[in-house]
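dude i think i finally got it to work??
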Amino acid sequence: MTSRPTATSFAVLGLLAVQPWTAYELVAQSRRSLHWFWPRSEAHLYAELKRLVERGHAEAEVLEGGRRRRTRYTITPLGRAALQDWLRTEPAPPALEIEGVLRLLLGDQGSVKDLRAALEATARQARAVRAEGLPLVDDLLTTGGEFPRRLHLIEPLVSFYAEFNRLLIRWCEETLAEVETWPDTQDIGLTPRGRERLERLIADQDP
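look at this
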């Protein structure tokens, strides 16, 4: 019995709706798109392609030639209809998964040094991701990328992710400055700077 499709199923199906891909090509494309906001392992993507075929949402064609055989996947009419049905549903609530933030929540179980290192690493990682993405942005501006006709969809995603990383870096820097004033990680309570931030949240409730 085939498992029920997930959001990742439809993410892969959506790539197939753009054009047919071999498994290798689809994984490479996911690194340029899904990877930034819906990261999944290569093994997960390969397995999802097979499940799409089992559901009848995609078909696989073996291509001969070269040193090895390749399999190209194409969306089926049933798969396109399923994708359109899914796009009419309400998306799941936003979720945030950042291990550096988790380390802060549990910071009173470790040292100030440990917490500082976690925050510095998170900021460094965010800067690295930002640097990795800038050549892709430059390519969109200079060549239009692989799908110029889809830039009206791609640009808002790129801009969102850039702003998110900028926010994360700024948050790490501000939190590091706060942590530097702590003698320890335990029993500090609400600091003046923390109170100011919470009061600002109450004062500015607009989304």
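The chain has nine helices and three strands.
im so relieved honestly
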